[in-house]
Amino acid sequence: MTIVEWMAAIIAVGIVVKLVVVMISPKAWLKVVMPLYSNSLVMTLVGLILAGGSLYFLVSPNYGDLTIVQIFAVMFFMSSLIIVGVAGYAKEIIALGKKLMQKGLMKRMWLYILIWLVLAIWALKELFL
Known about the structure:
By secondary structure, the chain is mostly helical. Helix content is about 85%, strand content about 0%. The chain folds into 2 domains: about 1-65, no CATH class; about 65-129, no CATH class. The chain contains 7 helices and no strands. Helix 1 crosses helix 2. The longest helix is centred in the first third of the chain and has 22 residues, at about 5-25.
């Protein structure tokens, strides 16, 4: 299997395991994720390493040979699925958004925003230049 196939297999197995655990015992899933999310610095570093590594393998001609445009098309698909999943929680998400805006969201999210901006500019450059 290629590295991209391994990435797909890892996420597919992770989805199946998560869904089985959540269907059997949602509280058990919380016991797994709560310790993981309790340290935001570690989660940020792990996320950056995973995102950077996976992006490298996806766009590398030696491994994935995808374009940033193809990756953005997949993100469009995934975003659409996420909308379906969170639509039932619109009131809670709006309330959370308002709460986060009051706590200086931009100051805390600068790195995340910068990453998305760079990726979006990269995709737009590939599409139109």
